[in-house]
Amino acid sequence: MGHKRDSHGHVPLTVNGTDGTHPYRGVPLSQLSAKLAKINCLLELEGFANRRRYVPWLPKWTDEEKALILQRKTELEQANDDDW
Questions:
Q1: What's the average model confidence in pLDDT over 39-55?
Q2: Are 58 and 51 in contact (CB under 8 A)?
Q3: What DSSP element (H or E) covers 80?
Q4: pLDDT tens-digit profile of 1-33?
Q5: What is the dihedral of CA 70, 37, 43, 13, to 10 degrees?
């Protein structure tokens, strides 16, 4: 299944959320948890958590999403402490 292309053959950089305007709006927390579980590096987590720095039109994280991100950060920091 292909993506719709514009008149120049480019795929537009847009993803509509459930409300039709905000990308990733309405993504279940379980999906975010699965994504976070795949991140094994604090630098990658930082880039993901601060994605609006690079793509400013993305919606802000909800409080629940922030809590999951901070929980994963703590897990990665503890794993790094165990390596020492």
A1: 93
A2: yes
A3: helix 63-83
A4: 455 666 766 555 444 444 444 445 567 888 999
A5: -100
